[in-house]
Write a structure and sequence with these properties.
This protein has 1004 residues and is of the alpha+beta class. DNA-dependent RNA polymerase catalyzes the transcription of DNA into RNA using the four ribonucleoside triphosphates as substrates.
Length: 1004
């Protein structure tokens, strides 16, 4: 072909390891034609390196996995809108091209039809018709005579308003609106306006725009991507028809028939259009300066502007996002995300309620549940389970054909506009064993409204009950019993579940856990049939047909974008026969190929001494002992060794003024050994950098002469583990200029230390179920203190029963009861959304398990052994530990850094700051009259420099703290007043001399 990609420069692993792009060079055949001597030269040119998509649908940019989110925007084409005027509507239209000037048609109350070109002043539409070829007034009136029959004659009213009577005058009139103040002649007006509408590079409806135009106006088989006279006539006719029809309604711009998806290819294509325009300018400039006889294509083409635009798009576009990699579900859902924001889209400040609201056309295309809770609500959404894009970027969803009340296997994919023409039954409609609809009258959707029709008239049926919702919402069992707000929280929080080291598949599931895990790209899947030859922690070797061996590498302890651990565990044994598509290895959040985001815990819904007040959670020590919520976090720390003006920095274990025990884990290069246990303040890389020479005293010269110069002229610049961090060193990477690694200017060597930390569950961590039932652990109690069942089994978790009634998420109660039955009977319950187990089925299962139908059991207090006065709801619930761990949030400080100007402690954990005692807190202490506390807060605990130093010394010596002095805030105020030319001086009270008779005026 005329263009192709070479093999990628590096494989994915190398790109990730060395923080590079996973990219491949693009080469194209170019023909250079010299029109003077009719010679042609063909040559292959290099057009830059393009990032390549991995088989998981991501891009590796600077060693980091990123996802390009699809954009949901208003489609190019034509839309009819209406303005209310008194008791009637005045219709207009907007023609939105893919590239070029917008045309906005409108109707005035007097019947004039006008047009605005690119938001400039309006002009009568007859001017536009004239320049497109409808020249005479009689022709114009005759063309519209078949529709302009109402009491108000729109075309005649427009011609009356039209000052121009000829084509040149029409050009001039439009030019005056486009370029007010410029000299308008028919010639320059014609050249500007013709180029504006007839050149394909200046005006382009695009294939989508033409498709929408044809669809709305009933045009057949027209493919031209520029406007012509026939198009404009049809637009004006439609406006007149709508104005004359009292029941006419404007187009709904929020309908998914009028909004389309721009996926990564199209987004990149739009940026490349800009890059090629720059490339064209460069080529034209070079053609005018280089010798035409010896010219070659490679001399003309410089790929830099193209590469710069692509790199900028992937590195900084609003739609190129740092991949959400907390667990496999968050990864999958990030790739299925749709954003209405980004270039050419909406901004969250300007987006109104209508755009954000769930639309009827979302059914089966966009999940109505999953969206953020903050300011982006409704602007960011997710694809529904079975939605797909058609060739124009519109969302389609599948339906099964129904013939005479019987469901066939024929699948029809429909977009949002076509769907409204059919009578469609919902997925939970009851069918008999022959796939016939049981009820005679069926609830259907028709024309976007719910109706009831005889079963013989039903044309289509949903292909599955969970067709309406997205992946995360389909993972919530009994979703139909949850309030929508809580279902939204439940769906969103599953994406924040931290992988634990012992994953457990849910006892109560919906049946799509396997599919979600499989499609996430995190599992190791067999690519063909074969037999397992070898298995260890690093790889699986499979012998395929023809004695061919395939080696599958297993990822161990890799850091994800969110510092969680990506680790795979083999599932197959040596000698095992496998089929194509079998799961060979689990990942961090799966068990035997089933998505496992949390743990099954024995729950009791009971208020317990106020310890579970306000959604707090009481957890058993057993959960911590058995490592049920234990997770691994991996963080990396970097150290750059630079070449400074005074000489290069050096890594060494010989650091001045550092005790021996701090250096015991460093090797001869000064780098910490793998496997070392480190805490905050420990040295990871010993580094010294040269210090500027200063004039020495004679004593220092003598000391130098005796002890050598080493200690004096270097300073300690070691990489130290920051406060609040600890763990074990699991990886060391060294990048050096000598080995050919690409480093920033001035850097000789870069060292990366990976530290893994095992985090057990503790009080302050956030736990959540799948129904939006979230809470913070208030206590981790010994198992012997927890309430226990009759057989002595203590419960694992205590939740507050008050968290159910007002929240209306009854799904958790259904899950608890069914979980108890499933645990007793030893199976995994599968209850799909919208067609899950009902109350009677759950009661039957509880009976089979030998449990009371109510699901309530007598519990005994673990501390006293006495039974509680009422039976209590007990069962198994699936809980997840979310990525909001107290260890990352808890923070304390005694002394630390201070701001230079105000001398107050800095703010925030990252700066090792203090807690701000603000204005409102001061009011509170003032209200209690706590004068000494207040003085302490505002002086020695804040910005009284001398006072806090003295207080620190007094504490060390065990003496009483002395009185505070003047805080720095006062000095700042004095300096501010000095800047206003006010000479303010602080005078001590005892030095004050009363110069006036009235001492009240001057007494401080």
């Amino acid at each position: 072909s005329d263009y192709y990609f070479d093999e990628p420069k590096y494989d994915e692993e190398t790109a990730r390891f060395k923080s590079l792009f996973y990219e491949a060079p693009l080469r194209a055949k170019v023909k250079l034609v010299n029109h003077r001597n009719k010679s042609t030269k063909e040559q292959e040119v290099y057009l830059g390196d393009f990032p390549i998509m991995t088989n998981r649908g991501t891009f590796i940019i600077n060693g980091i996995e990123r996802v390009v989110v699809s954009q949901l925007i208003r489609s190019a084409g034509i839309f009819f809108a209406a303005d209310a005027f008194k008791a009637r509507k005045l219709f207009g239209a907007k023609i939105i091209p893919n590239r070029g000037a917008w045309l906005e048609f409108g109707t005035d109350p007097d019947g004039t039809v006008n047009v605005k070109i690119d938001r400039h002043r309006k002009t009568p539409v007859t001017n536009l018709l004239r320049i497109f070829g409808l020249e005479k007034n009689e022709e114009i009136i005759k063309t519209f005579s078949d529709v302009d029959k109402g009491p108000l004659k729109f075309i005649e009213a427009t011609l009356k308003k039209d000052a121009a009577k000829s084509v040149p005058a029409s050009y001039t009139e439009i030019y005056k609106r486009l370029r007010p103040g410029d000299l308008a002649t028919p010639e320059n007006a014609k050249s500007l306006i013709d180029a504006m509408f007839q050149r394909i590079d200046r005006y382009n409806l695009s294939r989508v725009g033409r498709f929408k135009f044809n669809q709305r106006l009933g045009i057949k088989n027209k493919e031209s991507q520029v406007l012509d006279l026939q198009d404009l006539i049809l637009v004006v006719k439609e406006i007149i028809k709508l104005n004359n029809s009292p029941l006419a309604e404007p187009d709904d711009i929020d309908h998914l028939g009028n909004r389309r998806i721009r996926a990564v290819g199209e987004l990149l294509q739009n940026r490349l259009y800009v890059g090629f325009a720059r490339l064209r300018r460069i080529i034209q400039d070079r053609m005018s300066t280089l010798d035409l006889e010896t010219l070659t294509a490679t001399q003309l083409i410089n790929a830099r502007p193209l590469v710069a635009i692509i790199k900028e798009f992937f590195a900084s576009s609003q739609l190129s996002q740092f991949m959400d990699q907390v667990n496999p579900l968050s990864e999958l859902e990030h790739k299925r995300r749709l954003s209405a924001m980004g270039p050419g889209g909406l901004t969250r400040e300007r987006a109104g309620f209508e755009v954000r609201d769930v639309h009827i056309s979302y059914y089966g295309r966009i999940c109505p549940i999953e969206t953020p809770e903050g300011q982006n609500i409704g602007l960011i959404s997710h694809l529904a389970n079975y939605a797909r894009l058609n060739e124009y970027g519109f969302l389609e969803t599948p339906y099964l054909k129904v013939k005479n009340g019987k469901v066939t296997q024929k699948v029809i994919w429909l977009n949002a506009l076509d769907e409204e023409k059919y009578k469609i039954a919902q997925g939970s409609t009851e069918l008999d064993s022959n796939k016939r609809i049981i009820k005679d009258n069926v609830e259907v959707r028709f024309g976007g409204k719910p109706e009831t029709y005889p079963k013989e008239q039903v044309e289509l049926i949903d292909s599955a009950p969970n067709q309406m919702v997205g992946v995360a919402a389909s993972l919530v069992p009994f979703l139909e019993h949850d309030d929508a707000n809580r279902a939204l929280m439940g769906s969103n929080m599953q994406r924040q579940a931290v992988p634990s080291i012992k994953p457990q598949a849910p006892l109560v599931s919906t049946g799509i856990e396997e599919k979600a895990a499989f499609d996430s790209g995190r599992l190791l899947i067999a690519e063909s049939d074969g037999e397992v030859l070898e298995v260890d922690g690093r790889s699986i070797v499979v012998e395929e047909a023809g004695k061919k061996k395939r080696n599958y590498l297993i990822h161990k302890f890799r850091r994800s974008n969110y510092y969680t651990c990506i680790s795979q565990r083999p599932l197959v044994k040596k000698g095992q026969k496998i089929k194509k598509g079998d799961v060979l290895a689990d990942c961090a959040s799966t068990e035997a190929g089933v998505l496992a985001l949390g743990q099954n815990l024995l729950v009791a819904f009971i208020s317990w001494e106020g310890a579970n007040f306000e959604d707090a959670i009481i957890l058993s020590e057993r959960v911590r002992k058995d490592d049920l919520f234990t997770s691994i976090y991996i963080e990396d720390f970097y150290c750059d060794i630079r070449d400074t003006k005074l000489g290069p920095e050096v890594t060494t274990p010989d650091i001045p003024n550092v005790p021996e025990d701090k250096l015991k884990n460093l090797d001869e290069e000064g780098i910490i050994r793998i496997g070392a246990e480190v805490n905050a303040g420990d040295i990871l890389v010993g580094k010294i950098s040269p210090k500027g020479e200063v004039e020495l005293t004679s004593e220092e010269k003598l000391l130098r002469a005796v002890f050598g110069e080493k200690a004096a002229d270097v300073r300690d610049a070691s990489l130290v583990l920051p406060h609040g961090k600890s763990g074990r060193v699991v990886g060391i990477k060294i990048f050096s200029r000598d080995r050919g690694d690409k480093l920033e200017p001035g850097v000789i060597k870069k060292i990366q230390i990976d530290i893994a930390q095992l985090r057990k569950v503790r009080a302050g961590d956030k736990l959540a179920g799948r129904h939006g039932n979230k809470g913070v652990i208030s206590q981790v109690r010994p198992a012997e203190d927890m309430p226990y069942l009759e057989d002595g089994t203590p419960v694992d978790i205590i939740l507050n029963p008050l968290g159910i009634a007002s929240r209306m998420n009854l799904g958790q109660v259904f899950e608890t009861h069914l979980g108890m039955a499933a645990h007793k009977l030893g199976y995994r319950a599968v209850t799909p959304v919208f067609v899950g187990a009902d109350e009677y089925q759950i009661k039957d299962e509880l009976k089979k398990a030998g449990l009371p139908e109510t699901g309530k059991i007598t519990l005994y207090d673990g501390r006293t052994g006495q039974p509680f006065s009422q039976p209590i709801t007990v069962g198994y619930i699936y809980m997840m530990k979310l990525n909001h761990l107290v260890e990352d949030k808890i923070h304390m400080r005694s002394t630390g850094p201070y701001s230079l100007i105000t001398q107050q402690p800095l703010g925030g954990k990252a700066q090792f700051g203090g807690q701000r005692f603000g204005e409102m807190e001061v009011w509170a202490l003032e209200g209690y009259g706590a004068a000494h506390c207040l003085q302490e807060m505002l002086t020695i605990k804040s910005d009284d420099v001398f006072g806090r130093g003295a207080a620190f010394e007094s504490i060390i010596r065990g003496e009483r703290i002395k009185n505070p002095s003047i805080p720095s805030a006062f000095n700042v105020l004095v300096n501010e007043l000095k800047a206003l030319a006010l000479g303010v001086e602080a005078v001590k009270k005892e030095n004050l001399k009363h110069e006036t008779q009235n001492p009240k005026q001057t007494d401080l």
